[in-house]
Amino acid sequence: METFQVIVSTRFKNNPVAKMLKALDVEMRYIALRRGDLILADRFGVKYLSKADFLDLIKKRLFYKEILELKREYPNSVIIVEGDDPLHDPSLDQAAIQGAVLFASVLNGIPVLTTATEVESGQMLFMLTAQVCSNPEWQQIFLAKPMDTAKAPVLHSDNGNGDPRVGIIAGLPEVGPALAEGLLQHFGTLSKLFAAKVDDLKKVEGIGPKRAQKIFAFLNQNQAA
């Protein structure tokens, strides 16, 4: 079986679905993500919601904000809602649910997929991972485009624009915006950066032995679990 690598939010690490993916030989790289629960092919975001969380976001009028922030972070993304008939619930007006789904899928291009069980969610995520990571067209879109730092503003600026990978890298220990751009230019993808050894990191301008060791230790602190 081919092995696929995905970036997983540390808050999603102990989720049964994440454990199922790991059992299916999906290689996990854990890091604290601001938005989404998984990243496929460096830029494809996945948000996983239980039915209760999905309905709660709608009731609290936070779902629309969640969609806009997810799209800003990952222009290509998908939402998976898990539960028994997740798009219907007597506690919430059906029009509110339909409106939320239409806002995500039609107006913002973020499909809302539904699953009934954790096993079904794990299977769907595995198939999605396989398709995104194996399809040459997806690889061309998400992996082959080097970042043009002259044109792309940094993600964590107030306007929220730019390459989402820069914002993720800038969150590493002792790595700011400028160094994050240098790391991305050097390694090309998040997957290659997160798999880098200390000696590889030291080859990047501005990273000495101590900083390289701190970055390496941070990226690998959760890999054995």
Query: What about the largest sheet?
Result: 6 strands, mixed
CATH class of the largest domain: Alpha Beta
Task: Categorize the overall geometry.
Answer: elongated
Unreliable parts: 138-161
The quaternary structure here is single chain
> What is the third-level CATH name, the topology of the largest domain?
Rossmann fold
What would the keywords be for this entry?
about 220 residues; Rossmann fold; DNA polymerase, domain 1; 2 domains; 6-stranded mixed beta sheet; elongated
Question: What would you note in describing this structure?
Answer:
This protein has 225 residues and is of the alpha/beta class. The chain has 2 domains: 4-142, Rossmann fold (3-Layer(aba) Sandwich); 164-220, Orthogonal Bundle (DNA polymerase, domain 1), CATH 1.10.150.20. It has helices spanning 16-23, 51-59, 63-73, 94-107, 118-134, 136-142, 164-170, 177-187, 190-194, 198-201, 209-220, and strands at residues 4-9, 26-31, 38-40, 44-50, 76-82, 112-115. Strands 2-1-3-4-5-6 form a 6-stranded mixed sheet, with helices on both faces. It is elongated. Mean pLDDT is 82; it is low at 138-161.
Quick gist of this model?
The protein is of the alpha/beta class and 225 residues long. The protein has helices at 16-23, 51-59, 63-73, 94-107, 118-134, 136-142, 164-170, 177-187, 190-194, 198-201, 209-220, and strands at 4-9, 26-31, 38-40, 44-50, 76-82, 112-115. It has a six-stranded mixed sheet, sandwiched between helices.
List strands and helices in order, with pairings:
Elements (H helix, E strand, L loop, with lengths): L3 E6 L6 H8 L2 E6 L6 E3 L3 E7 H9 L3 H11 L2 E7 L11 H14 L4 E4 L2 H17 L1 H7 L21 H7 L6 H11 L2 H5 L3 H4 L7 H12 L5
Parallel strand pairs: 1-2, 4-5, 5-6
Antiparallel strand pairs: 1-3, 3-4
